[in-house]
Design goal:
Helix content is about 80%, strand content about 0%. The protein is mostly helical.
Amino acid sequence: MRACLRAILVVALAGALLAWFVHGVDMAAVRAELARGRVDLLLLAVGMTLVTYAVRTLRWQYLLAGLGPTRFSHAFRATVIGFAANFLLPARAGEFIRPYVLSRHEAIAASSAFATVVLERVFDMAAVLVLFAGFALTAGPALGRSDPVLFRAVQAGGVTAAVATLALLLAFFLLAGRPGTVRRMSAAVERRLPARLAAAVEGLAERFVLGLGAVRRPRQWLIVLALSFPLWLSIACGIWLVSRAYGVDMSYVGSFLVMTLLVVGVAVPTPGAIGGFHEFYRIAVTSFFGASAEKAVGAGIVLHAISFVPVTLLGIAFMVGEGLTLGSMRRLAGKAGAAEEESR
C-alpha cells in the first residue's frame, strides 16, 4: 500500500511539473521551434551522450581497481543497463542493478561495487561545483540580459561552490586512509538523530568506508578526479549543442550553469527525471539567456530525449543479451535494496 501511494505521488509530481513547464506556452509555436532544430548539432549531441557513458565507464574502472581488474566491455554494459534502469524503474533502481550486473561477469562483490557508486556521486558533485564556479566567476558580461540581482546570487553561489569543493576534496584526501575516523564521525552524528535516520546515516557511512577502501592510492584518486572533468564537460557539450540547435544564445561556458541547474532538476524523484529536468532547463535558459518560453520548451523536450532515450534503448538491448526483463530487474533491485537495509 505504501509503495502504491509513493508511486501515485511520484507520478502526480511529474505531471504537475510538466503542466507547469508548458503553462501559458503556445504549443503551436513550440512545434514550429521543434521543426527548426539543426539536425547536424542534434546528431553531435547524441554522439556526446555516448562519449559520456564511455568516460563514465572508464572512471568506474579506476574506482573498481582496488577491488580487482575489470574489462571495459563488462563495465560499460553494466553502466548502460544501470542508467537505463534509472529511467525505466522508480527510486533510482539502476544504482543497485549496475553492481549486480557487473558481478555476473567479474570477480567483484556487488556490495563492494555499490560502495564505489556512492563515491562516484561525490566526484560528480565536485566536478559540477568546480565548473559552476568557473562559470559564475568569469561569465558576468555575457549575461547582461539577465536579472542583475539573480546573477549576483549566482556569482555568490559560485564562490561558495569553489570553497565547498576545495573543502570536500581536502576531506577526501584526509579520510582516504582513515576508515576509523569516518566511523567515529558517523557515530557522533547518529547519537543525535532519530533511530531510523541514524540507521540510514550508518549505512551510508559504511558504504562510504568500503568505497574509500577501494581507492587507496593518491594516484588513483587523482585519475578518478581528472576523469570526472571530461565526463561533465561532455555532458555540458551535449547541453550546449542542443541549445544552439534551437537558437538559444548560449556560450559553451554558459552551459555549465544550465548543467548545474539540471543536476538539481534530475534530483527531483520522478521517473526518468521527467518534469524536474524540463522545468529547470526552462528556468535556466529563459532567466539567464533570454530564450523565449516556446524555444525553451522545445529545446528542453529534445534535450531530455537525447539525454535519456539513446542510453535507454541501448540498455534494453543489453538487458536482452543478459536475459533480463523489467520484471526481473525490479525484483533484483528490490533484493539489492533489502540486502543494503540488512547490512545496516
